[in-house]
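FAQ: What does the model actually see?

It sees only this:
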Amino acid sequence: MDHCKSQVRVSGSGERRQAGQTSESLRGEEESGEGRGLREAAAAGMATAARFLRRTLRASEPASQLLSISYRSIVGRAAYTTRGIIDVGQLTPKSHPELLADEEITPGITSEEYISRRKRLLDVLPEKSLAIIASADQQMMTDVVPYSFRQNGDYLYITGCTQPGGVAVLSKETGLCMFMPDKHKEDVLWEGQTAGVEAAVDFFKADKAFPLSEMKKILPEMIEQSKMVYHNAKASTSSYRNFDAFCRASLNNKVKDLTRYTDELRWIKSKSEIKLMRESASIVSQSLLQTMLLSRTHREESQLAAKIEYECKMRGAQRMAFHPVVGGGANGSVIHYSRNDKKIKTGDLLLMDVGCEYHGYLSDLTRTWPPCGRFSAAQEELYSLILETNKECIKLCKPGASIGEIHRHSVKMLISGFQELGVIGKGKSIQYNYLNPTAIGHSLGMDIHDSTTLSKNRLLEPGVIITIEPGIYIPPVPILNEDAPDRYRGIGIRIEDDVLITESGHEVLTASVPKEISHLTTLMNMGGGSSTAEAHEPRAACS
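And it is asked to produce this:
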């Protein structure tokens, strides 16, 4: 549908007249029967396309809405959306009505919710405070080639703007004031349209807006009139930090990091945020399942990394949440393995840690399995322990518990289990940290490690989303004086799920992805097709 829209948008007035004449002639032809044939053929084509999409796409709410409308309404919508649309550099309800409802600034989040977030932030800041929230800067791959842009979480949370270069200033006295990047015609030629001052007020609902070039005249006075200045200190921009007024405030200890306040706001997700995160988890879960099936016959880590990204984006994700970890064999024992350039050997386990971003909200999922369809005895012993720890820790996820409490429980379980298996000796529990230096989990949201300034002992509440991810990482040769039997060497295992805390306990958002040993082995040994040769193809790859 977007392709059709773009064709109509770029056509000239002569082409539009021609299109109008064609429509008139078709209406005349209907009476003779030829027009009816064309219309029926077009309708049949649309029906075929719809059936194909239903088979190949996930039955998401946006997809369901799109496929439920008629051919005539699709044409009507395309015609409607070619008029009166102002490009503000990102999705809007007029440019993408299939993704955004009226009054939404980003998919699923209304302007009312963004305004509420600003009010809540001002309510927790001390009196006469000024909050300066900078967007992320565009990072460059070379001197003229940019990387794909991802917005700073706090700036996106407060403004809804997904574009680089802006600075938002918030206070009770001024409300939201947005400084928007100055754009010239040459910039539009190279980079496309972006949001300006008008869009800041009309679309993002700022109370005031100015070009960024005027910030040096306006912001210093706002700083001087404030008792305290809070800013997102980890943002990469330096556009305001060299101002004399900001430097003086910093020297007088009047400048503080805003993160501890925004982390507090982002800790508990709203209903609309939970809906987006549930969708993000659903996308990555379905995508990993498809990748697991492919691993039976395709053993290159790079191919599986490409597969997971393809599947996520085909299901609506904008990007991966992080570079996928695709570690076969001993590579799975490297916690943040990123090379993804080896071939998985027969008999090795495969660890994949993946996540995707769905309109600003992330998922984080890990599974470990044997692509050849069988666990060795040593692999199964370690895997069973990690799986049991994963399930027991998920049971502890409920209001009133804490990540710290769950982590301590996981350490006790794993140390006891490792000692029983002889992975670490009795009285040598310090070696546990060599084999699993990670925490049991973390908060998840607009960033993979969300609300990081809050204590791990902070009590969980309904609306909080965390990960549970026990693991063990035994390198092929000792690195930190860990003493593990040779039979366990070169094994890395992690099982990670996303868990929403609810009023009555929890909901596992990634529960649809197999993790039981029997389920994994069944999945890996399933027939790939209807013929005998296809059914035995995965097994042949393991021989």
